[in-house]
Amino acid sequence: MRTIVFFAVSLISFNIAASDNRGLLPVNLDGFETGDWRNFRPHYIGDSDQWIRPNFVINNTDPLNGNYSLQWRSDDKTHQWLMLSNAFYLARPFTASVDLRVNGTAKDFAAGLLLLESINDYAGIKITGEGAELFKQGKTSVAQPGIEMDVVPGTIYRMFVSLSDDHILKADITDMTSGRIISRFETTSLIDPAAVSLYVRTGSGSATAIDFDDMKINASDYFIPAGKYVRSPHFVVLPRKSDVEQDQGNWVGSQSTMLIDGEFLMWYRIRDNQQRGRGYGFATSTDGLDWDKYENNPVFTHDPEYYSNEKISVLKVDGLFRAWYGVDTPGGWFTAYATSEDGRNWKQHGLAVDETYCKDAVVIYLDGTYYLYSIKDDNKIGVYTSPNGFDFTHENTIDIGIHRHVAAFYEKRTGLFHLYSTGGYNGVCHAVSDNGIDFGFFTNVWNPPAVGIDDWERAGITYLSFVTDGHGHIDDARNLPFYYQARNTWDNNSPGWLFHGDDRVVLAGKFEGIYPGVAARIMPDGAIYYESFPFMVPKAEGLSFAVMRPVIVVIDQWDRHGDIIASGSLEALSGDPGNTQVQIKLEKLVPGAGYRIFTDGNPIQETVADRYGKILFTFTVEQGRHMDLTISRP
Q1: Are 388 and 465 in the same domain?
Q2: CB atoms within 10 A of CB 181
Q3: How many angstroms separate the CA atoms of 114 and 237, rounded?
Q4: How many domains does the chain fold into?
């Protein structure tokens, strides 16, 4: 087992090559020191048919540790809540723990720590005014009797749960003052956890406050598969607030993101617990992780004659920022147009597409033509083109049979347009086109999780926003970071947007190939697993491996045009006897030039690049051996 090390987001810069830790590692602890609970969301599990506000707040006056604790406060209602998160990495074997303190009468209450496969399948431990007990539902063996204990107000207790590779679940509670374990349980559990959760229950008028702090997860080694759409281990990159009435509003999705001159720019829709759409905010970032809101948000609001506003899409063409955004008018949903010289001060120009129903557009600019994709007639995707970004012609309608949000980009490497549909029960689907108008079949590429902040089957992962240039282009779809709006199933008998326990902006991506500084496990079937999330790490273009048995490769230096092409290390992982064959293929080198490979400083092979600039090194490695690797020109 390895304890996942926490790297503060503020230490990761856009210049990844200058960092000692390329890629992102899981943030597997949460002391609630951020002042918000960005990776958690409340989920009501009581039986009331009325809307009940979750009473989770940040305690910065008397925290358990550091500057903040997460506190639950009882009131005159009966409450039963989960505060859950699927941001933690939970590969077995792992352990989870959290400290808690109860103040008040310490009678009519319960608090727990759970591992969840779904809302209906979970296992963990809970403490009540009478004692402690195993807390489970589904896929866990027979219950064990509870243990009586006196909960002393003001005393800090630690709840601990572990799950082994062979499905043994252990749970205990420790008195942190004496260090004594006061309850312990062990059972068999077949759950495959996707999230962890805090649990609270308080009766009406119980006069109880429960503080949580220092949640920690120790997990097995972190791996993500190449070629798959996955969430970043940092998960939510933009914080949300609970109830927001000020002009800044809450961060929500339906945003537009670009990277220009080393700076990330984002425009996003603002909404709070008063208005579904109250204009647009602007934020900047140097690394794509820590964002600064513009001090004078909203940068603009929708025309007063419109009811609301939705998704925004922004490009920068000919030195001018151009935005297309959805507006709800008396006649239905349309797409409006605005321009700005600095991305902050905007001039609105009215409707760009006055054809009902045209909503939540995304726009690409290529060779003098603007390509606009939107929801059309509620259950279709509309395709439009324009020579100036304002006068659009309808070119195509793609009937997908269900309301879905769209995202798109143009890929320079292949010359293809990529179109995504999201939400609407079918997860994230993807299609491509060589002309931007006629698209092939949509195939499913990603689905919401069973439980978490993005577990809404209908639209848990939606409003994808790819990190593009000012024209909506990316270099290579095999290296594809993006953001999306996370949505969940909880509405507690009230429209979810009225209380923002749901929408967050989440970082995700899909990656293929080798990335400098990112350890990659190469498998015999060609699969690659990364040991960190290679966000904004430049790819080692033209470098690939094939192996007979698993090996782990770390390329520390990559310069296809230098004297030292690549340097790093290689380790054969199998414990079986003998050697394993390794092939290293390099492309786009100098045709006819000679190249040499070294292991542990010793030359083992030399060859000449063919007329296409390709070379192939083949050699064997002893099982279990770690070696340095260098490829250079003689």
Answers
A1: yes
A2: 12
A3: 24
A4: 3
Quick check: 313 and 255 in contact, CB under 8 A? no
With beta carbons less than 8 A apart as the criterion, state whether 95 and 35 touch: no
394 secondary structure, DSSP code: E
The strand ranges marked E within 189-229 are 195-202, 208-218, 224-225
Please report how many Cα atoms fall inside a 13 Å half-sphere around the Cα of residue 515, on the Cβ side. Answer: 27
End-to-end CA distance of the chain: 43
Question: Checking phi first, is residue 344 left (phi over 0); if not, alpha (psi -120 to 50) or beta?
Answer: alpha
Give the residue with greater pLDDT, 326 vs 145: 326
Range of the domain at 422: 237-511
| pLDDT bucket at 411, cuts 50 / 70 / 90 | very high
Q: How many CB atoms lie within 10 A of CB 475?
A: 13
421 DSSP β-pair partners: 406, 429
Domain identity same for 193 and 277: no
Report yes or no on 11 lying in a domain.
no
pLDDT at 277 over 80: no
Question: Domain boundary residue among 221, 249, 284?
Answer: 221
> What mean pLDDT is predicted for residues 529-557?
96
Neighbouring-strand partners of residue 316 = 321
Q: Which is more confident, 469 or 41?
A: 469
Backbone angles phi, psi at 392, to 5 degrees: -105, 145
Edge-to-edge, what's the strand order for the sheet holding 369-376?
A: 358-366, 369-376, 380-386, 393-399
Selection from 409, 411, 298, 296 nearest residue 362 by Cα: 409
Residue 402 has pLDDT above 90, yes or no: no
Question: CB-hemisphere CA count at 13 Å for 394?
Answer: 15
**Residue 4: per-residue pLDDT:** 32
Claim to verify: residue 250 and residue 398 sit in the same structural domain: yes
Is 446 in the same domain as 480? Answer: yes
Q: Hey, what amino acid is at 258?
A: M
DSSP 502: S
**pLDDT at residue 145 greater than cutoff 90:** no
